[in-house]
Amino acid sequence: MLLQFNPKTINKTAIFVLTMLVWMNIAVFVLFVPRTSYADPRIYLAQNLAFGRVIPRTRSLTIIIDALGSKVPMCAPSNACDITGGHAACLYFYDFGNVHISLNFPSSVDLHTEEGTKGATLQRMHMFSDVEAFVEGTRQKAYIGGELITDYTAYGKSLSGTVHVEITTY
């Protein structure tokens, strides 16, 4: 038996087959090619480092916020003052993917009164803070603490300053 093809039928069949191949390639690409996140990495400061309200009993004062432990301020020695309130700082890292995040802190930061005079020094942050962020659900998190050294000249005053944290991913 001899097969006879109509040229119009062959063209329509060829166009149909090519169209189906194109759609199948698109479907395979969309369904099976791994995707990457299009979101930009973000860092949020959930709460500032706050040493709370301090009632001193000595002329000089050392207050420690151990972000690796209790995350609340404590006097050193413990009978040097009373503290109410205060907490460690908390950083959240979103959309960084599967990377390790390390934090590097300055050796010390000067804190100033509202008048602009030096009122205290924040130091030893690397000892009392997370130096690597840890995974918590879909984000990474790090707590920041430190040791505040001050004297009687700063008592009863608000102190403020800026801490520059170097963040590295690997």
Short description:
The protein has 170 residues and is α+β, with helices and mostly antiparallel strands.
Shape: elongated
Oligomeric state of shown chains = single chain
Mean pLDDT across residues: 83
Helix/strand-derived category reads alpha+beta
Report on the structure:
Strands 4-3-12-9-8 form a five-stranded antiparallel beta sheet. A four-stranded antiparallel beta sheet has the order 1-6-11-10, with no helix packed on it. It is elongated, with a radius of gyration of 30 Å. Strand 10 (134-136) and strand 11 form a beta hairpin. By secondary structure, it is α+β, with helices and mostly antiparallel strands. Helix content is 18%, strand content 37%.
Chart the SSEs and their pairings.
Elements: H1 7-32, E1 42-47, E2 53-56, E3 60-65, E4 73-75, E5 81-84, E6 89-94, E7 101-104, E8 108-112, E9 118-123, H2 125-128, E10 134-136, E11 139-144, E12 146-151, E13 166-169
Antiparallel strand pairs: 1-6, 2-5, 3-4, 3-12, 6-11, 7-13, 8-9, 9-12, 10-11
Q: Can you give keywords for this protein?
A:
alpha+beta; five-stranded antiparallel sheet; 13 strands
